[in-house]
Amino acid sequence: MSAYIDTSALAKCYIREPRSLDVLDWADAQDEVVTSPLTLVEFRCVLARRRRAQQIDPPLERVALAEFDRDVQAHSWRIQHDAPNLFLEARQLIDLIPELPLRALDALHLAYARHFGATSFATADKHQAEAAKALGLPVAIFY
What we know:
Elements: E1 3-5, H1 7-10, H2 20-29, E2 33-35, H3 38-52, H4 58-73, E3 78-79, H5 86-96, H6 104-115, E4 120-123, H7 126-134, E5 139-141
Parallel strand pairs: 1-2, 1-4, 2-3, 4-5
Helix pairs in contact: 3-4, 5-6
């Protein structure tokens, strides 16, 4: 079975910050780690946002993106495509847990994880973790 990693946790593998080593250890302990195609875009946005905020410099941004792209090509992170009706599933999750502030991309990550039967859901986002728990997913928290 596969574990699922969202962008907030995955970013810690490329940008040194609190809990980075914990995420790497978690990923190494999994048989397979999958993520959605959303991560390709979200991770790029994370790097650009941190560069604009001067949290990372342009050379680190380029290195982190190149490392991520190499890892995707090497299937270190399996990008899970082919999920028919995924947007409908994500929409339904919002109705399943109406008391939680589930954002659109977070709902899509959760829908991917549920759709593909993830055995664990890794996140560094508190709201995402709460939503995953409410949906019955085992959660690895990295915040």
